[in-house]
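Researcher: Structure prediction, please.
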Amino acid sequence: VKEIKLTSEDKKIAKEIKIDHSLAIELFKTPYHEAKLLATMIADKKQMTEKDMDAWVKEFYGWDIVDQACSNLFKYMPISQEKVFQYAQSEEEYVRRTAFSLIATMTFNKKIPDSKFEEYLSVIEKYSFDERNFVWKAVDWALRSIGKRDMYLHEKAIKEADVLLSLDNKNSNKIGRISKKELLDEKTISRIKSKEENRTKK
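Model: Predicted structure follows.
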């Protein structure tokens, strides 16, 4: 599962507007899909409150809006680290997807310690049974993203994939199989090691 690619026009408009939190809040209230996507791009992560976040998540109805909100905005909000646990418990498909999209996108946030992602492995295991398309794909995305953050978490993610493969659940097995295959790919491992080397040089 990859993050949706916004059109050049979307990006152009967002670049022209830059950050306008009040406008973002109003745009998200409209019924227009493109307006909601734009809202995720121009909202101010420093002004976005937990109340605003919960209100947006409650209104999510598509995977692309979920992933763009997480990638453009939520992953920078410290509260998101704990929201993962809350949203994962929801029976609503797109709310639960938000939890795992958050995990996947937050792996790019270097301010979050590896230990937090270790905690998320148990959440991945707990909800790996969910067969709904937009949930299980996000669970898989989250596990693979954790494993690609660095070699320490790569080892942890491989072990978790093995746990999923050992469970008596076909959906969990599927996630474990897909994740392990990608994480053990030589090109994947090479990219992770290269990324770590570049960090060391800086």
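Model: Residues 1-6 have pLDDT under 50 and may be disordered.
Researcher: Thanks, that helps.
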